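pasting input
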Amino acid sequence: MPAADGSAEEFRRRGHAVVVGASLAGLRAAETLREEGFAGTLTMIGDEPHEPYDRPPLSKQVLLGRTGAGDTLLPRRRALEARWLLGTAATGLDLAGRRVRLAGGEEVRYDRLLIATGTRARPWIKETEATLDGVLTLRTAGEAARLARRLDARPRRVLVIGAGFTGSEIASACRERGIDVTVAERGPAPLVGALGGVVGAVAAELHRAHGVDLRCGITVTALEGDQAGRLRCAHLSDGTVLEADVAVVALGAVRNTEWLAGSGLAAGPRGIACDAGCRAFDVHGIVTDDVFVAGDVARSPHPLFGYQFLSLEHWGNAVAQAEVAAHNMVSPGPERRPHLWLPAFWSAQFGVNIKSVGVPPMGRELAVVQGSLTERRFAAVYGHQGRVIAAVTFDHGRWLPFYGRLIESAAPFPPDFAQVDRAPGGPRPIPAEFPDPALPTHGPTVTLSGYAPSERRVTFVPARV
Amino acid sequence: MDLNRCEAYAQCAFQAPDVFAMHGEEALMYEPCPGDERREQVMRAAASCPVQAILVEWPGGPAVPEEAGTGARG
């Protein structure tokens, strides 16, 4: 019985909420639903067989062998009283009939739906090479377990393809375990898509100081196996043949939206477009009122960044957006809240804590405001159209909330505050050196795309999946 | 662990050194599901965190579904 046509109160009392995606965003949304008094039926659908678990430790503690890949379950905030359909992928959506189709053919009716299907690791482009024994990706607990087992077996050399955050953390774990590692990065430096070339150069020094064989401006043209189908070597674009037992493909993520093809939702390789209240758009650009989106798979306009649609593959965004989406699912119109989270992320690699707030790739210029790049301990702010748009710190995280407030208050760039231990006149802005957004990369963690009222243009076209 | 919140005050590493450890100056490594024998340590660590970045769930505490494993998840 459809219990909640239109009325939030009816839905709250005896509606059926279905959450597709049983990871961080799905779990936190479900908890928020219950917290806000949702007393109806709750169904959680997840394609992985595991209860919701935390992914950040997978590329750190788990690869170091300190934590089992199955031991990163997320703590629960409260009881859920949900029906769990785990190991069950959603394969289709019938918007008019309000039904989610499952892999087994079963259909689940909903009154309100939350989509939090997230992303998966982008696979190696050549399918036959991707199936070689020793070619891996890292996103799920299962993938982490496989990679950790490989590292336990002391491979002679690991090749990491792509020096984004995940690739860099994998390389860091290898070095900490004394395993030889080569990193092949298409761009001029690690992290260049997320943080630009200036900060990327610091990351490159970090790699090399820890014994990583870092090769930038290089692509892997082929992976070659032996007769038994085991990875033997990689061919690089400069003609080099590199022997490696293990190759980890760390070329960013693919959004899990294929199951929505033909559903009528505005879903594609860039994610599912939704409004600031997390309500999904349909293909006509009309907002739905019973389908909500949260986490890595969502892309929503942010007022602080010119109303651009941002896709944020960030842990904190998954939590914050899930809370807003769930609140709005059970609230009548005037009580709904916008998702106004300030983007933030962290990464630990080579013993350095890298943190960021705001949207660095929007920044054309950068100014180092604390510490120094050569010491690899600093805080830097990014500027866009005369205001502070983002900040990054290397082992300077305690000051990040201050820079967050600068971003939220549209503080001027270059910053005009007095600085301790600095020459008068303020920091000198330098170009942040982001790569041409039209060039394919391993994928920045933030994708700027789509419609902005003041500047209507597309700046990045990802390869077709 | 909400490592966006964490500001590396390292109180947790003092209170529960078997579970939390600084990795370099500022990065934190932790055991996501420590055993029950660490329970008291972990509760002290969570309580002492100045920015409240540690979320703890113990069996018998909030919401432990059917076959959920033992230990804290923090």
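fyi DSSP finds eight helices and 30 strands in chain A.
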